[in-house]
Amino acid sequence: MKSSIFATTRCLPPWEPIAEGESFEAELRTELMEGHPLFGISAVAVARRIDKDEVLFSLDDPTNSFSVVLLSWRMKPETIPNWPLSRSYRNLDQWVAECMRPDNLEYNHKTPTPACDKGEVIKRHAAGESLRDILAAYQDPDQRLAAASVLAGLPDLRRVRKLRPLIWILALFFALFASLDILAIVADGIGLRSLISLLVNGASSLHLDGC
User: In what order do the strands lie in the sheet with 43-49?
Assistant: First the structure.
């Protein structure tokens, strides 16, 4: 059945056919809870997105023949109703028109994020700009994290590690109210990188001009 599905329809990036989908099917059965639209319906994995955890399943269902499911890979039943998230389609043509082709257009028109200029970050810091202003100049999250990494390696900023008790309190606060991963902070030694992470993730009001 899998080979015949895409015999006349070419799978466009970021979608690709699945040759062996047992692991996807087993995970779907594990995650589904009673009350989910797909609960109790036989499903076969036929395609997947290469850039996300979305999988296209062929369904043994008279109403909808296909469904795209965003697997969480928690390897246990979900506890939130209607999770994992899914979108069902009457037939393959509807999936192609409403899902695969729009995804392909978006995938092909993604603009690469320019790399963070390490020299520029160091130059701005040497000119006396605050950490907050330097990081605020980068709108893209990946660029901000790259700039934060550069700043964390500057020798004259290592004295910020003396603020570890304050950093711990701030880290705990933002872990609770800004979804910051507290384990990542602990693993990092509660140091400068954690402070910068707080700044990047929303502590823009923290005054660091004196650092």
Answer: 15-17, 43-49, 54-59, 66-70, 86-89
Q: What is the mean pLDDT of residues 67-89?
A: 90
Q: In the structure encoding, which two tokens stand for residue 74, read together?
A: 């928690």
Q: Please, which pLDDT band fits residue 168 given cuts at 50, 70 and 90?
A: low
Both tokens of residue 110? 């993604």
200: enclosing H helix or E strand: helix 192-200
pTM recorded for the entire structure = 0.53
Domain boundaries, the chain: 2-108, 118-200
State how far the Cα of 136 lies from the Cα of 139, in Å rounded to an integer.
7
CA distance 41 to 65: 11
pLDDT at 53 over 50: yes
